[in-house]
Amino acid sequence: GNPELPTAVNITWSSINFKTILQWQPKPSGYFYTVEIHGQATDTKKKCILTAETECDVTDVLRNVKETYTAQILSVPSSGTDNFEEPPFAVSEKFTPYSQTVLGKPEIQNYTQKGSKLNVVFQDPLTPYTFPNGSFQSIRDIFQDDLEYKLYYWKDQSSGKKAATTKSHEFEVSVDSTKNYCFYIQGVIPSRRENRNGQESMVLCTSIGRTILDDYGAEVFIIAAVIAIAIITLAIVLPVILCKRKNAKAVREKESLNGV
After folding, report:
1. Dist CA 47 CA 34 (whole Å)
2. Whole-angstrom Cα distance, residue 48 to residue 32?
3. C or N: which end of the chain has fewer Cβ atoms within 10 Å?
4. Cβ–Cβ contacts within 10 Å for residue 240, how many?
């Protein structure tokens, strides 16, 4: 073998919504890496053959998401090896995509607060895997009944959070009709021991009954009032001035006629 060649260390699986990247160190010098993915029931697949990188996208060879995989990262000398020589390699920890991939952020599509009801509609994160027709599978297509979503919501400018759960694409919760609410959503897999909670969506807030005064303060109204007064004054004064000028002109014309 090549005992002098360094083997990979700090091997980690980084996986969100089933897009999975294998990462390791160190940067190779005078040799390359080749990644082999070993499944329990699938043939060994080679990826990133003779790469000088320290990461490898292995998403497409982990398609059987409930299987448990290990990665072997081979250190291959630049001069190559003869067929009988086994290059040194390092082995990753086991990885099962179904139980270890992180759930990404759900996308909030629409929300309304009408009366005492807050309604939030959202979309599942998509995975890199496709259906036969080419459309992307969502995480719900893969997890199905194992997946649920939590809505956390609270009165604007207060800290007391409430939570609701759904297996659909929509939440409807009862709220105080006179208050604004802020909220976010995250996916959850209750059956998991680890990585149960997914990434949180962006926080959004309703603006029911929120006036311009709340958002911009009194200055806007003072400026608006000044402008309004100016317009009203102009609307009253201008016709008076025009009327006086018209009368004055008429008087002058009459005088000049009389003077002839």
Report:
1. 7
2. 10
3. C
4. 9
Q: What angle do CA 103, 108, 109 make, to 5 degrees?
A: 135
Q: 3-class SS at 180?
A: coil
204 neighbors 184 (Cβ within 8 angstroms): yes
Q: What pTM value is reported for the model? A: 0.75
Cα angle: 106, vertex 55, 72; to 5 degrees: 110
For residue 243 the two structure tokens come to 């009327």
With beta carbons less than 8 A apart as the criterion, state whether 178 and 158 touch. no
Rg over CA atoms, the chain:
35
Count H helices and E strands in the chain, helices first: 4, 17
Distance CA(147)–CA(137), nearest Å, equals: 14
Phi, psi dihedrals of residue 184, rounded to the nearest 5° = -150, 165
pLDDT in tens, 200-231: 999 999 997 655 555 565 666 788 888 888 88
